[in-house]
Design goal:
single chain, about 230 residues, alpha/beta, 4-stranded antiparallel beta sheet, 7 helices, 10 strands, about 35% helix, binds adenosine-5'-triphosphate, ATP-binding cassette domain-containing protein
């Protein structure tokens, strides 16, 4: 059976703060994301990009409107469902949040452990494969302190991919990467989209990604002001 689009957003509004300080961050967002696609979200600082990403990622409560994620409505969803859904997502956020006391491969293994116990040998194999995919085969046993900013970011990306997520949510994932590793990350995400149907939504201003994204959604002051598919037709 066709599982339908992984993300369907309708009439989404969001506010921060309370009382006098209450401020609307999103206005009436409608967005349907196709399975296996790579969507770039762009817009000026404060336009609501991260807010959209965190709502789709079950990291904030949906206040008004509807967000359907992998076939499940998030508004009023029970904590248990949100937890199960979060396990099907891969997060790549700016602050890469690696554990300083764990090596690269141990950090990537953490990305598998949310799924419950697995044969340790298989875990190590999967984590090693993900690191190799990101060009870090020779850095597996390094601690984060001994890796460059770009290498740390690639470890964080490997950790997001290792669990085979249905949807990857990324916030400026290539900002710390040089030209070649940035392109490599885009290649990997595009390949996963084609091979496994993995969907990616990514906040980015990186031209290397914008040139190749399936779709570019532009936000301004909490509203979608442009939605283009650069290569459609
Ligand atoms: N935790 C919060 N508390 C109060 N206001 C917030 C909070 N998070 C975001 N906002 C406000 O909501 C609006 C949208 O913020 P958001 O972080 O989604 O924008 P953004 O487009 O991701 O910006 P940037 O590119 O700077 O990361 C902004 O006006 C911001 O100040």
């Amino acid at each position: 059976m066709d599982p339908g689009p992984p993300v369907v957003i309708r009439g989404l509004n969001h506010w921060f703060g309370a009382g006098e300080a209450r401020k609307q961050a999103l206005y009436d967002i409608d967005l349907t994301i196709a399975r296996g696609s790579l969507t770039a979200v762009v817009g000026p600082s404060g336009s609501g990009k991260t807010t959209v990403l965190t709502l789709v990622g079950c990291l904030r409560e949906v206040q008004e409107g509807s967000v359907r994620l992998l076939g499940h409505e998030l508004r009023h969803a029970k904590p248990n469902l949100l937890m199960l859904l979060r396990r099907r997502l891969g997060f790549i956020f700016q602050a890469h949040n690696l554990h300083d006391s764990l090596t690269a491969i141990e950090n990537v293994r953490m990305g598998l452990q949310v799924h419950g116990a697995m044969d340790p040998r298989r875990e190590i194999e999967a984590a090693g494969h993900a690191l190799a995919l990101l060009g870090l085969a020779d850095r597996m046993d390094y601690l984060p302190a001994n890796l460059s900013g770009g290498q740390k970011q690639r470890v964080a990306i490997a950790r997001a991919l290792v669990g085979n997520p249905d949807l990857i949510l990324a916030d400026e994932p290539t900002a710390a990467l040089d030209r070649e590793s940035g392109s490599n990350v885009v290649d990997i995400l595009m390949r996963l989209g084609k091979a496994r149907g993995t969907t990616t939504i990514m906040v980015t201003h990186d031209g290397r990604i914008l040139d190749r994204a399936d779709r570019i959604v532009t936000l301004e002051e909490g509203r979608i002001v442009a939605d283009t598919a650069p290569f459609a037709g």
